[in-house]
Amino acid sequence: MAIKQKIIAAIVVWFSFMKMTVAQSGADSLPAASKWTFHFQATVIGQKHSGFRSLYRGDNSLADSVEPTAVSLTATLFIGRKLWKNAAFYFNPEISGGKGLSSAAGVAGALNGETYRVGAVQPQVFIARAYLQQHFRLGKANEYISDGVNQVADVVPSRRITVSIGKFAIADFYDNNAYGKDPRTQFFNWAIWANGAWDYPANTRGYTEGVVVELIEPKYAVRISTVAVPRIANYHLMEYNVHAHSETIEFEHQLRIGQRTGKIRFLASGTYSRAPSYQQGLQAVANKDTFLLNVIRGLSENTSFGGRKYGLGMNIDQELSDDIGLFCRLGWNDGKYATWAFTEIDRTLSGGLAIKGTKWKRRNDVVGIAGIVNGISPDHRNFLAAGGYGFILGDGRLNYGHEAILETYYNAQLNKFLQLTFDYQFVNHPGYNKDRGPVHVFGLRGHIMF
């Protein structure tokens, strides 16, 4: 049975069981504040980059000449319905289209978080999320959760186990950060709004299917999940079986500096997939094995399994004052097997500040500034230097250097619903190549949310 059929069957069984349980237990003692939630977002991003020094280029290089403006569009409807006590179903139709600079290739810390790993595409409608969420009580205390994106306003247990099952983005639950998380309102760069070294399981648009279980306590939380992985690198179809699956666990704890709050998170992941190793890729380059090279590029389906990628991450956000917040991330994966879902980063360090505009009487505006240093494993490095290609990188050669990126933005709140953002990124050694760059990237973003 296909994974989608299994998930649908599990949801139906769970729905029937919980409906019967509620009927037996009598009236709700915790009435919901709302039965429905509706929200909508639309984001348009336009980007352009400068020409730059380049000694050579390959199939996946960032264009060294000035490209036409690259424009992306996403629009999402967030619908939620309370089902029974402490349970809700969330459903998100979405439309996306447009393109990234050089088809979102050539920079490991990719430049537009709203551009998926595809070239120019016509706008397409699809189901981004469809999942059931159930809270299980662990204590007597309650807390009120206000209406929000994929959150029905409700009174829920303060101490609880929360189970989410269905289709979602795994990054919805993990690696959260108050100041560097959302490319629709904060930083554009992939390696700032997410841990770049976490090759998190997702289809081409960023979604997967599976189960997430969370233990929520007042001062800490623990999350664990098992989800499907792409059948082909950077592919829209997913699979889940004994040879293909991904597990993630995260521990989150509250921080406090004086009266200022923050959080620290530790993440570990393990993924089994059809990804070949970079050592196999090197042999394929030497033997001119185009089939295996196409597997690594995401152009062919591997006939065997074997990819086992492990990773670690740390994530901190901390309020420094009423108007200033600090954040940083540290990430690592073993770098032995080909990148399969997110981007070609095996080691990453990022950090920055977000500053509200209170001082200049624009309290809802935000200025952000952040820096990133990305790296790859020796095996990955040797593969690219030999002329190999992933689905993000490949200049045909490689004079290796760490990829370093500086990003700054100004997000202006024009009214209750509309934001306009000016963004600048400086990229040194794009694609880890000292023979190319640096690059100046300019962006403009419009965002509507209600």
Number of domains: 1
Main pleated-sheet profile: 16 strands, antiparallel, barrel
User: What structural class results from the helix and strand content?
Assistant: mainly beta
Please tell me the CATH architecture by its name.
Answer: Beta Barrel
Number of strands: 20
Spatial shape: globular
Any low-confidence stretches, pLDDT <50, length ≥5?
A: 6-31
Radius of gyration, in Å, reads 22 Å
Span from first to last CA? Answer: 39 Å
Report the sheet-strand fraction. Answer: over 45%
User: Can you tell me the CATH class?
Assistant: Mainly Beta
Across the major sheet, the strand order is: 1-2-3-4-7-8-9-12-13-14-15-16-17-18-19-20
Strand/helix succession: HEEEEEEEHEEEEEEHHEEEEHEEE
CATH topology: Porin
- For CATH, the homologous superfamily is named as Porin
The total of helices stands at 5
Q: Helicity range of the residues?
A: 10-25%
Provide mean pLDDT, rounded: 92
Key traits:
Porin; porin activity; 450 residues; 45% strand; two-stranded antiparallel ribbon; 5 helices; signal; mainly beta; globular; 16-stranded antiparallel barrel; Carb-sel_porin_OprB; single chain; OprB_sf
Explain what the structure shows.
- One of its GO terms (cellular component) is membrane.
- With 450 residues, this protein is mainly beta.
- It has one domain (3-15, 34-449): Porin (Beta Barrel).
- Helices cover 12% and strands 45% of the residues.
- It has 5 helices and 20 strands.
- The strands form 3 sheets. A 16-stranded antiparallel beta barrel has the order 1-2-3-4-7-8-9-12-13-14-15-16-17-18-19-20.
- α3 (278-287) packs across α4 (290-297) and α3 (278-287) runs parallel beside α5 (378-385).
- 43% of the residues are buried.
